[in-house]
Each structure stands twice: as C-alpha cells, then as structure tokens.
C-alpha cells in the first residue's frame, strides 16, 4: 500500500505542475495575445533574439513557453509528465 501512496504522490505533484504551467507562464508575460511588453518574457525574447541573430529559435525555451502561455499544455504532454511523476514516486519508494 505504501508503494501506491508514493506513486499517487508523484503523479499528483506532476499533474499539479502541468495545471500550474500555463498560469506561471502567463504571469511571466507569455500570454494568448503574445509576449507582454516589460515582462520577464520580453527580456527572455530579447536575449534569445540577440543570441540567434534576430530571431527566436523554434523549439527553444521562449517558443515553448509562449506556446504554453497561449494554449496551455496538451493532454498528451500532461499524460507523459504525470506518468513520469508516478515513475519518480515508484523509484523513490524503491530507494527508501
């Protein structure tokens, strides 16, 4: 029964992180309307653009965070992250 509790705790923590990701991204300035001026997101975009010769790399941190801020996290991504959390809970149980 203890193993189930560790798995559930890991899955629950991961699911919570998935649920909070769009909220945190939005608070940083990654919004549905684009990157908000004067925010952490704007600074990150500026740094990324300078580093990449004027553009923001597809698949980079800024692009991924903008996607999360605009559309949230897909169900498939949520399932993978939650499964990883459950696996982490199982490993934690096995190692303790």
TrEMBL record:
UniProt-listed Pfam families: Ifi-6-16 (PF06140)
GO terms (BP aspect): intrinsic apoptotic signaling pathway; release of cytochrome c from mitochondria
Keywords associated with the record: Membrane, Transmembrane, Transmembrane helix
GO CC term, one of those recorded: mitochondrial membrane
Keyword Membrane part of the UniProt annotation: yes
InterPro entries found in the cross-reference section: IFI6/IFI27-like
Domain of life: Eukaryota
TM stretches of this protein: 6-32, 44-65, 71-95
Protein's UniProt keywords contain Transmembrane helix: yes
PANTHER family in the record: INTERFERON ALPHA-INDUCIBLE PROTEIN 27, INTERFERON, ALPHA-INDUCIBLE PROTEIN 27-LIKE 2
The name this protein goes by in its record: Interferon alpha-inducible 27 2A
């Amino acid at each position: 029964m203890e193993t189930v509790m560790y798995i559930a705790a890991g899955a629950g923590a991961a699911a919570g992180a998935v649920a909070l990701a769009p909220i945190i991204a939005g608070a940083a300035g990654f919004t549905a309307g684009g990157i908000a001026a004067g925010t952490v997101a704007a600074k990150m975009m500026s740094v990324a653009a300078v580093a990449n010769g004027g553009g923001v790399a597809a698949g980079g941190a800024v692009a991924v965070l903008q996607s999360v801020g605009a559309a949230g996290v897909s169900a498939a991504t949520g399932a993978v992250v939650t499964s990883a959390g459950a696996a982490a809970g199982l490993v934690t149980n096995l190692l303790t």
